[in-house]
């Protein structure tokens, strides 16, 4: 992903990471791997994913995720068929109520009429996020809350799990994946 943030205008070549992002620096780069999805009445499926966290010199990382179907053909999808994508920003703030504590704020836009802001905590490389706001159009699916857990696991991989509350169903797993860093 290239920055659209104006090296041509500013004359700067590669922006230095914003100092406030040091605690999230471990995320910067491009990650690639496989995940498993499912939901209450949705049979499990495998997907491929690429995530990029990009430093632009500003006090938030730009984030983009792209996914593809990676399972047996089903419902008109075959391996490589485009699946969900999401894009947004991640920033980190000192917790005013907890000395040494850190708050992570993530804003995400989805192409299916939903935008959400998560607020959570950072502890080392473990990030726990919970919905702060979910907004959706009248035609969007009735998603009311999501909880996300990200962390670096053995071998330096990035793993995450996303639980979701939708269509009146209780909070339960929708997605989980393990990704390897393929580019710094
Ligand atoms: C890695 C990213 C994601 C992948 C690969 C993915 C994939 C899928 C797939 C394949 C389905 C089955 C229905 C269909 O074919 O459309 C589905 C259902 C659904 N997804 Fe996702 N999704 C992702 C992210 C999200 C996110 C971020 C949200 C909410 C903001 C979401 C909300 C839903 C809902 C509400 C359903 C319907 C569940 C049900 O009632 O059965 N998905 N997803």
From TrEMBL:
PANTHER family: PEROXYNITRITE ISOMERASE THAP4, THAP4 PROTEIN. This is Peroxynitrite isomerase. Its cofactor is heme b. Its EC number is 5.99.-.-. GO terms for molecular function: heme binding; metal ion binding; peroxynitrite isomerase activity. It catalyses: peroxynitrite = nitrate. Heme b binds at residue 174. Keywords: Heme, Iron, Isomerase, Metal-binding. The lineage of its organism: Bacteria, Bacillati, Actinomycetota, Actinomycetes, Frankiales.
